[in-house]
Amino acid sequence: MIRIGALRRATAITAIIALVAGCGGGGGGGGGSGSTASTGTTGGTPTPAGCSLRDRQDWAAAQLREWYLFPETLPTNLDPAPYPKVSDYVDALTATARAQRHDRYFTYLTSIAQEDAFFNSGSSAGFGIRLSTDAAQQRVFIAEAFEGTAALAAGIDRGAEIVAIGTGPSDVRTVAAIIAAEGLDGVTNALGPNTAGTTRLLRIRDASGTRDVTIAKTDYALTPVSSRYGAQVITDNGRRVGYLNLRTFISTADPALRSAFASFRAQGITNIIVDLRYNGGGLVSIAELMGDLLGAGRSTAEVLSYTTYRPEKSSNNVTRQFAPQPQSVAPTKIAFITTGASASASELVINAFIPYLHANLALIGSNSYGKPVGQVGLDRAACDDRLRVVAFATQNAARQGDYYDGLATKVEASCAAADDVTHPLGDPQEASTRAALNYLAGVSCTPLAGSGTQTSRSLATRPVLLRPLVPSAAQYQVPGMF
After folding, report:
1. For the segment 290-313, what is each residue's pLDDT rounded down to a tens digit?
2. Given pLDDT bands bounded at 50, 70 and 90, which one contains residue 134?
C-alpha cells in the first residue's frame, strides 16, 4: 500500500491511495456528504461545527490548491456562492483540467464511511447486479450478477434484460418509455436509492421467458473474484489457459488473487487471460500485488511502476520494483480483456507489463478508459467528507504513462471483440473470451482502432455500463453496480 509520507496537518490523509475511475458523469459527489446544500441542517439533523456549505467548499478548495496534480489549471479566484453543492464547486474548480481530458471527474467528494466500508470489505447496498445499456435501442441488460445477493437468489443473471420497472404492479413503466422521456438518468432514478429495503418490481426477460420479480435492495459484501467463474483453467484445443476475472481492486481481493495464481502455478499455466472488462480500479496496493503475481519472471531490480507527484510534493514519489510472491507465475503471454469501463488500477497493471512482454501482451475487446493518474483521499471527518484529489501520475518502467485516450495505441497487439452478454463470463464461447483464447493460440484478429478518437467513436455504438449521475462510493469503484 502506498502511503503519503510523514505529514503533520489538521486534515487527515487516508492511508488508502487509490486509482479509481470516478467516471460516473458530472456532479460526482458520492453519498449524502457530496450532495448537501444546506448550511444549517441536513435532513433535520444539526450541521456539525465547521461543516456548513461554505466551510466545506473552502476546505475543498484548499486541498486542491495544496495537492492537485494540475495546479496551473485551477482558477485563481472562484466564488463558491453560486454553487449549491460542494461537488458542484469541485467540478467548477477542475473544469479546465477536465476540458484537457486530464481529470474527467476523477476528483470528487465522497463519504468516508461509505468508501471505507467498500474498500475494506466490499460492503454496499443494492440488488447485486451490474447493468449495461444500449441507449440507441432503449434497452437495459444484466451484465453481471453478484454472489450472495438478492438478484442472483431471484434467478436474475448475466444476459437477462430489464424490460420494465415499477415500485409495484400499479406503476410499471417500460424501460423504453423511461429512456424516451428521461434518458438513462430516468432508469437509475426508477431503480431507486442505494439503501437497504428499497423495493422494486422488475420485469425480466431471459431464456426462460418474461416474468415479474419483486426484489428488495440489501446490504451485501461484493466478492472481488467470483466463486462461479472468477478463476478457472480453460482447456481449448489441448491448450490450458488460466482465466482470472477481477471485479475490483479492494482489500478482500488479496487472498482470492493469491489462491487463483497458486492454482495456476501448481498447474504450470503460462498463458493467462486477465478479464478486467468492468474493473474501474481501486487500491494501488492490490494492483501492485497483481503485478507481483504476474511477475515471477521479473527480478526485484526491475520496475513495476513509477508514481510521481507535483514538484513540491516530490518527496512522496515512489519507484515500485517487482516483488514476486510464492504464488507468482511467469506468463509467456497475457490477454487482458478490457472495455471503456476498464480504468485506473486496471490500466496500471496492463501498462506495467508492456515494456517486458511487448507483443506477447494484448488488449482484447475494446479500448480502456484512459486514466494514468491516481487520487489521494483527504478527510474532514466531522463532516464525513473525503475529497478524492488527483495528485499523482503513474508510469511503467519505460516511463510511458500518457494514455489519457486509453491503452489501445500503447500496446503492440490487440483484438477487437464484443462484450457478449449472451454467454457467461469466462465461457470459451463468449466473444471476448474467445478472442483472447484465439490470440493466445496465435490466431490473427482485427486490431483495435488506431487512435483514441476512432476508438472512442466506435465504443459509442456498443452497449455501455449504466452509471448514475451521482454515484455512491461503491459505484465509483464498480461501474454499473446497482
Report:
1. 999 999 999 999 999 999 999 999
2. confident
**Are residues 390 and 93 in contact, defined by beta-carbon separation less than 8 angstroms?**
no
Instruction: Kindly state the cell numbers that stand for 287.
Output: 494492483
Instruction: Write out the E strands in 137-258.
Output: 139-145, 161-166, 173-174, 199-206, 209-216, 218-221, 231-236, 239-245
Residue 444: strand, helix, or coil: coil
pTM, to two decimals: 0.89
Q: In the numeric block, which cell numbers belong to residue 80?
A: 463558491
Q: Could you tell me if 131 and 159 are in contact, meaning their C-beta atoms sit under 8 angstroms apart?
A: no
Which is nearest to 352 in space by CA: 419, 307, 415? 307
Cβ-based neighbour number of residue 155 at 10 Å:
13
**Residue in the structure block whose three cell numbers are 491516481:** 374
CA distance 363 to 369: 12
* Phi, psi of 284, deg, nearest 5: -60, -40
| Residue in this structure with the C-alpha cell 486509453, named with its chain if needed | 406
Length of the chain in residues, anyone? 482
Nearest to 196 by CA among 472, 477, 476: 472
What is the overall mean pLDDT for the chain?
A: 89
**E strand or H helix that includes residue 432:** helix 431-440
Q: Residue 46 has what pLDDT?
A: 66
The candidate with the shortest Cα–Cα distance to 33, out of 111, 123, 141, 134, is 111
Hey, which residues does 394 pair with through a beta bridge? Answer: 307
Q: Say how many Å lie between the first and final Cα of the chain, rounded.
A: 28
Q: What's the CA gap between 423 and 430, in Å, rounded?
A: 5
* Contact present, 273 and 233 (Cβ < 8 Å): no
Select the highest-mean-pLDDT range: 6-10, 33-37, 191-195.
191-195
Please state the rounded mean pLDDT for residues 68-80.
97
By the 8 A CB rule, do 291 and 349 touch?
Answer: yes
Residue 481 has what DSSP assignment? B
Q: Which three cell numbers stand for residue 444?
A: 490473427
- Which residues, in sequence order, are bridge partners of residue 234? 241
Q: Quickly list H helices, 141-239.
A: 150-153, 175-182, 184-191
Q: Which amino acid is at 120?
A: N
Query: What pLDDT does residue 17 have?
Result: 62
Q: How far apart are CA 245 and CA 225, in angstroms?
A: 6
Mean pLDDT, rounded, for 218-233? 97
